Amino acid sequence: MDVVERVAGIRMGRSGGGRAPHKPLLLLYALGRFQRSGPGPIRYAEAEGPLKRLIRDFAPPRAGGPYYPFHHLANDDGVWVVSSDRGPGSPGASPKMLRESGAVGRLGPEIVRELVARPEVLPVLARVLLDDNFEPSLHSDICRAVGLDLADAGYTHVPARGGRRRDPVFRVAVLRAYEYMCAFCGYEGRLDDGAAVGLDAAHVRWWAFDGPDSVDNGLCLCALHHKLFDKGVLGLTDDRLIAVSAAFVGRTAAARAQVHALAGRELCGPAPAATGVRTDHIAWHRREVFHGEPRVPA
Question: Per the database record, which ranges form the HNH nuclease domain (predicted)?
Fold first, then answer.
């Protein structure tokens, strides 16, 4: 098994289509460290804060702490190795034990050898982790957060999970269904040649978690509301009204107008002949992406 398959095959709890991106976030953090400073050890006490922020920003609201991947990833076939002042192996999953024992983790020796011999493998590993666990709108944010630079890495292709391929028609079908308007704010815009700008097709149930490339799993959203939807600031109720997380803080008039004012608002679209978002996809997004409780509409 090559290192790409090994990393793509890390064990994660996905029961009921749930998200548990702790291990991918730790590996992306480790790849960022490797790219910047080589294959040195990563002390848990040093990584705890950054990993906590990554989990807070990119994992479901119910997600556990950074101790979970730091300890459990060592069980995945040489991908991650942990030792401490007590010797080889993790001292346990307790954050206190990891701190007090001076626990350190590092990428497995076979992965390190491959990355040193073939630097072009690093962006492939990163893209596999990103594509298999997160929506594309979040990839650049995650890379910035972990210090990964993939811009000039020569990446060309990522193997699709289980042989699935994204349907290139999805974007066009969703934009047409919503008549080229953002379903949340009504924004629409085109260049002189007619091409839509600032609009995209957002998956409600993420593609990486068996979300279909179908109109009943899509929303036409502007760039701002697409990002906020994938970050869990915005969501949908079972009645297909817009939900705004009460955890979102925005004090300016722009934030109030572009986010707070959306609470309880009806969607713009889809067109009468198109299929609306399925309630099971809405429930998945609310459980796995949306943060906290919805704000009470003004």
Answer: 182-235
